[in-house]
Amino acid sequence: MANGGSGTTSVCCVIVSTGEVYTPLTMKFSVASLNFGVLQIGHTSAPQTVTVTNVSSHSVTFTSIVSSGDFFQSHTCPATPATLNAGQNCTITVTLTPSAAGTRNGAITLTDNDPGSPTQTIALTGIGTTNAITLLPHSLSFSGQTPGTSSSPMSVTLYNDGTSAVNITAIGIAPNNGTFTETSDCPATLNPNANCVIEVIFTPPDSGNFSATLSVTDSNTSSPQTASLSGVGLD
Questions:
Q1: Which pLDDT tens digits describe the chain residue by residue (235 residues)?
Q2: Which of 129, 145, 169 is a domain's end point?
Q3: Residue 23: how many CB atoms within 10 A of its CB?
Q4: Contacts of 18 (CB under 8 A, 6+ apart)
Q5: Same domain, yes or no: 53 and 78
Q6: Are 199 and 184 in contact (CB under 8 A)?
Q7: In terms of domains, do 107 and 162 share one?
Q8: For position 177, which CATH number holds?
Q9: 143 domain residue, yes or no
Q10: pTM higher than 0.85
């Protein structure tokens, strides 16, 4: 507020609601989540890292850093009573070892002594599979399509999560009558930790319900990998 042409300007605050107090962020993560993709049960993923930065104006003491689910962590963050000073950072390294098939969810939970944001989390996810070679998703369902016209493509991904290369010997759809057709970017040999995409198009010859099976034959003992296909021809 000005007073007689000289003085100071006072800036106050915005009250959000009764009892609500603004608390500044203390820790900043380089990413909010980690996705480990598809991994065979019992195998351990390549590590991924998150950088934790103290963006406050004061030092912070960590009280705990823990992981949940099938995820495991190690870190360079200082242990109590050591502190992370303002502007400094540390890293958390995370791996996934799926214990079962399907989506594996977990989190890294970081707790510190700052009253403003004492607990923060990093979301973790991945997919466990029983075989080294996996086709996901396991099914494609096409919405209603006018007979004689072709749908937009839908895709499935073939993953090699094993330790050796796999030879792909055939990719096909049964019955092979042109209702469902496929194209792919899959090489003759799919190396470890690699994947390729198969696109499927639905062209109903008539109205009604149609189904087929996409199969990928390879040199792995779990071959073939399959995905069910379905679609509806409109009246």
A1: 334 444 433 333 333 333 444 345 688 899 999 999 999 999 999 999 999 999 888 899 998 999 999 999 999 999 888 899 999 999 999 999 999 999 999 999 999 887 766 788 999 999 999 888 999 999 999 999 999 999 999 999 999 988 889 999 999 999 999 999 999 999 999 998 899 999 999 999 999 999 999 999 999 878 899 999 999 999 8
A2: 129
A3: 11
A4: none
A5: yes
A6: yes
A7: no
A8: 2.60.40.10
A9: yes
A10: no
